[in-house]
Amino acid sequence: MAHATRVSGSLLFGALTHEFGAAALHNSAVLVNADGAISGIYDKLRLLAFGEYIPFADRFPIWAKSLAARLPDSPEITPGASPGILRSGELRIGPLICYEDILPERGGARDPQTCW
Questions:
Q1: In angstroms, rounded to a whole number, what is the distance separating the alpha carbons of residues 107 and 96?
Q2: Quick one: which of 17, 33, 44, 115 has the most CB atoms within 10 Å?
Q3: Is 43 helix (H, G, I), strand (E, B) or coil?
Q4: Residue 103, Cβ neighbours under 10 Å: how many?
């Protein structure tokens, strides 16, 4: 600890999150402020097929169950409810996770007035 340097500022990182007592798991961006408190959480909206969910699981439940058994390290992720802006003091971030940044409808989904 003698060589540790104190840095002030916000930290944005990715994590799998859930609400306590809830079964839903999210791929999230978490913003922590300089005091160490969570300023906001954004849950990814557009999930990656086979990486974050099994497509058509509701139509082909036997196939989906068989596939999930072969992919034990792939959790079933729940998509977020809506796009959002993470705020910490004057900082405004409109996060995009993974390939959301190449989807044109996602990049323009935020009101520029709320970002600045």
A1: 8
A2: 44
A3: strand
A4: 13
Q: How distant, in Å, are the alpha carbons of 2, 4, 5 from that of 51?
A: 42, 38, 38
Q: What is the average per-residue pLDDT within 27-34? A: 94
Residue 106's closest CA among 75, 80, 78, 76? 80
Is 86 domain-assigned? yes
Tokens of 40: 């906001």
What is the edge-to-edge ordering of all strands in the sheet holding 38-43? 11-17, 26-32, 38-43
CA–CA dist 65, 91 (Å, integer): 43
Name the residue range of residue 28's domain. Answer: 11-47+76-99
Judge whether 64 and 112 are in contact, CB under 8 Å.
no
